[in-house]
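Notebook entry, cofactor series.
This is the third protein in the set we're modelling with a bound small molecule. For this one the ligand is LH6CIYWY. I'm keeping the input format identical across the series so the outputs can be compared line by line later. Sequence and SMILES below, as received.
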Amino acid sequence: MLSSKFIHAFTRQIYHTNLITSATFNVIKKHNSTHTKNDLVLVDVNDKTGFSIVTLNRPPVNSLNLELLSAFSSVLDDLHKNNSRGMILTSSSSTVFSAGLDINELYKPDMDRVRKFWTSLQDCWIKLYGSSFPTAAAINGHAPAGGCLFAMCCEYRVMLPKYTIGLNETQLGIVAPTWFMATMKNTIPLRQAELALTLGKMFKTDDALKLGLIDEIAENKEDAIHKCEIFLKKYQKIPQTARALTKQSYRKNDIMELENNREADLQLFFLAISDPRVQSSLGKYVAFLKLKSRMKPILEAVKFLKGIFKSKKKKN
Ligand SMILES: CC/C=C\C/C=C\C/C=C\CC/C=C/CC(=O)SCCNC(=O)CCNC(=O)[C@H](O)C(C)(C)COP(=O)(O)OP(=O)(O)OC[C@H]1O[C@@H](n2cnc3c(N)ncnc32)[C@H](O)[C@@H]1OP(=O)(O)O
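Returned structure with ligand:
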């Protein structure tokens, strides 16, 4: 058995960044309750298992703006403080896990706000990727870019059929930050990660499974959460400190790289979004998304009419 003295020394040595603030693991105070962080992030603690279902709740597409990131960061702090037994990350939308970063934060940004925004994103990544508690994602909808990032930060991913997931940044004319890339490299084979990143490829559920970007496919959200619970339960017999330190050792280099270069990363981000070509790409993308959204009723009407014509043809 490792002595608690050794664990403290080991923890201090590698985690001077405060990833683990205490190596003492108390049993979580179980309570059947739902907490909210400005309603943007809902937390539901399961009384029996001690697992928390954390639901991103920013309609319509859970795009990650400053407020949502701040709320999520604070939830991650709470889970850490309460020595959570495990977290399942999901979405309140029926079709979108998260649309990634809110493009409106990047397009023609207010510099003071965008600094807080990027810092919050860094905080969330460090806390989620390096969490001492085990994590799983119930991906109940599309997960592009930042949505894929948060899913990949979790140790296990269960996804519903017929959605898409991936880091699509190059398609938008932007470069995924190195820590986004590191998270993908930690998830799928190196060569596949390079191809996926350079192509900005979005994978359909089936292809994501073949690639190892997700671990399982579920029939519906309830099934996805159930499968995540089965995964988390596997850790119930593993001593918590050993599990947490192993996970954090595994991910330590990626986390240190950002921890030691947070300001440089912020400056690189400022440089990238100040580039007129990047702003032009983002402007076109915002316009495209808005147009697509407005065209939806027309496209649905066309689809409906096509269906009627097809069934009439069959009858004839
Ligand atoms: C050398 C090194 C250099 C640099 C490194 C450092 C820094 C680099 C700089 C920046 C890096 C920044 C990294 C960014 C990562 C990201 O996360 S970028 C975001 C990428 N996200 C996407 O591409 C997803 C876009 N959305 C969609 O594809 C679809 O919306 C989605 C499939 C998610 C859902 O489809 P659907 O259900 O049909 O919904 P709609 O498309 O109709 O959308 C509904 C409304 O939501 C708005 N919306 C959608 N996505 C976003 C978004 N990401 N941000 C803001 N708003 C969004 C959409 O406009 C609709 O709104 P409306 O109805 O028009 O009001």
